Amino acid sequence: MAKEVVRHYRMSTELAAEVRKKAEEAGMKESEYVRFLVTQRPDDYPEIREGLKSLINEVNRIGVNINEIVHNNNSELYRQDDKERLTAYMRRLNETVEKAVASIGGH
Prior knowledge:
Mean pLDDT: 81
Structural class: mainly alpha
Distance between the termini: 33 Å
Number of domains: 2
Low-confidence stretches: none
Helix content: over 70%
């Protein structure tokens, strides 16, 4: 694809050094690296795709358990151990999401 448009951007010395370093580590020119960053999506990486798939499955399983607890509550069958299970499921869900975000590189 022909590159017909030229853009000029300003950035700090620190950011410019970081872009230069990361481009070198990737074996690219700075302009190639910036284009790469702009066009990449999480779906482009198999490990991210697999992690998201695993996270979705985990959330679905936890959701089923939460629905059962809510159903029991609405049927007035709610017990203290149901509340403790719900708390444990929510903690597990939060931990799983945090791990996924950390592995993807969220801030």
